[in-house]
Amino acid sequence: MTGRALSEDRMLQALHDIRLPAEAAGGALGDMAATLAMAGILALLVGSAIRLMTRKRIARQDRSLADVLDELQAMPEADRRVALLHLLKARAPSRFEALRPSLYRRGSGSDVNQLEAEVRALD
């Protein structure tokens, strides 16, 4: 700076000389990456919102354990065994943990009637 005052016309003329490049190096690739990132974030937000809205609401009913076990009588044996194991896990986690190592061994699974007796004993 020389300390001299510039005229308004001269100052405006000097500002017109500033030119930015039309496109920076890697600009198109950067724009595409930013668009992809924003689309991904938006997809996560929309997916989370849809999941929250469509999640099944479990209706809490005051049913006794005996009523639940009576309803299980109509189920096939394999499904009944799974349901009994879920009940055992919810109501007696320590007993379920004791049974867990043998659940997937062939021929070593607990008998359905034995499982039901254990669950009935919890009531």
Give the SSE order as H and E letters.
Answer: HHHHHH
* Cα separation of the termini: 91 Å
What percentage of the residues does DSSP assign to strands (E)?
Answer: under 5%
The outline comes out as: rod-shaped
- Uncertain residue ranges: none
Helix share bin: 55-70%
Average the pLDDT over all residues and give the rounded result: 80
Number of strands: 0
Number of helices: 6
Class of secondary structure makeup:
mainly alpha
Question: How can the largest sheet be summarized?
Answer: none
How large, in whole angstroms, is the Cα Rg? 35 Å
Key words describing this protein structure:
63% helix, 6 helices, single chain, 123 residues, mainly alpha
Kindly describe this structure:
The relative contact order is 0.08. The protein has helices spanning 8-16, 27-54, 65-72, 77-91, 93-99, 112-122. It is built from six helices and no strands. The longest helix is centred in the N-terminal third of the chain and has 28 residues, at 27-54. α4 (77-91) packs across α5 and α4 packs parallel to α6 (112-122). It starts with 7 loop residues before the first helix and ends with a helix. By secondary structure, the chain is an all-alpha fold.
